[in-house]
Amino acid sequence: MKVQVQLAEAQKEMISGRFADVGLEVGFKTGQSLSMRQEHTRLKTIIDTNSLVSSRLETTQASLQNIADSANAFLGQLLGSNNAAVNATVVQEQARSNLDAFINTMNGTFNQGHLFAGVNTDVKPLTDYYATPTPANQQAVANAFLADFGITQSDPAVPNITGPAMQTFLDTTFSNLFADPAWTTDWSSASNQNVRNRISTNNLVETSVNANDDAFRKLAKVYTMVADLGTQNLGQEAFEVVINQAVKDVSEAIQGVTDLQSRMGIAQQRVADSSERMSIQVDILTNQVNAIEGVDPNEAATRVNELLTQIEVSYALTARIMGLSILNYL
Questions:
Q1: Torsion of CA 55, 56, 61, 66, to 10 degrees
Q2: Per-residue exposure over 196-205, b if at least 16 CB sit within 10 Å of its own CB, e if not
């Protein structure tokens, strides 16, 4: 029975590569070994989390690139749209399409959390401008237009709006719709606080951007400006004011999105560097733990064979003993 217990322990050591009873074998080094194992587990957990963070950052970068590409294409269209009679309807339809695509991208998700919602990952960051019934952001634009001009965007009197009047509207009432508190009331449910992740034992890094960033506000402003201020009915002077303002704002927005991409790129590099350093630490800890707890597999296999031989001999002797009878000597 004692040999059977020893055999079970030896087989366990041969399979696991470590002592069956670490505390008994290494004695006072048990605490050191346990501490290293805990650090090993902690580092592995952070490395696994970093892998998820890296995937989320890649998805964020792809979304930012799509936003930048659309904005650049729209800028090119704006620069060629100086004639209201010819280009107004075309550029307005493109702005509507871009606004819808922009909001859908901003409301994108990764691993069941919204990418651009800051720490409020469980809510859509932006209100759908074309939702039914009329959402707060679309109604706010209509109310602002009516308040300043006394008419709706589809009114026959829209062509009478002058350039200076339109510029004043864009600089004041309309611009305020994309600043706080109107922005966070009518447009955005995102948090200003970005997601932060622990990428190493002592480093926390921001690993997201949120819909309240100035670049995103300007893009929403540009697309809404061209799409929903009666662009197709404006006179040439007011149309040029809208286009010129849109060109200025979208150019600034593109630069802002580029800055966000750079920031996320830096975060990606820091995550990758941290994971690489921790992988080296994990390898070192693995070697140190094996040096304390490790069992030579060849020695363990030899011991298993020896114990099996002892058990077989024991079984044979037991069978011989059980076969003994006094009748054999009579």
A1: 110
A2: ebebbeeeeb
Please compute, for residue 110, the number of CA atoms within 13 A of its CA located in the half-sphere on the CB side.
Answer: 20
The radius of gyration of the chain from alpha carbons, rounded to an integer in Å, stands at: 35
CA atoms of 285 and 40, how far apart (whole Å):
6
Considering the entire predicted model, what is its pTM?
0.81
Asked whether residue 259 is domain-assigned, the answer is: yes
**What is the Cα–Cα distance from 73 to 67, expressed in whole angstroms?**
10
Please give the structure tokens belonging to residue 330. Answer: 């009579």
d(CA 63, CA 210): 12
- Does 295 map to a domain? no
Number of independent structural domains in the chain: 1
48 falls within a domain: yes
**Distance from C-alpha of 199 to C-alpha of 73, rounded to nearest angstrom:** 36
Retrieve residue 285's tokens: 């800890």
Q: Is residue 162 part of a domain?
A: yes
Q: In this structure, what CATH number is given to the domain that contains residue 159?
A: 1.20.1330.10
Per-residue pLDDT tens over the stretch 235-266: 999 999 999 999 999 999 999 999 999 999 99
Which residues constitute the domain of residue 125?
41-283
Cβ–Cβ under 8 Å, residues 224 and 175: no
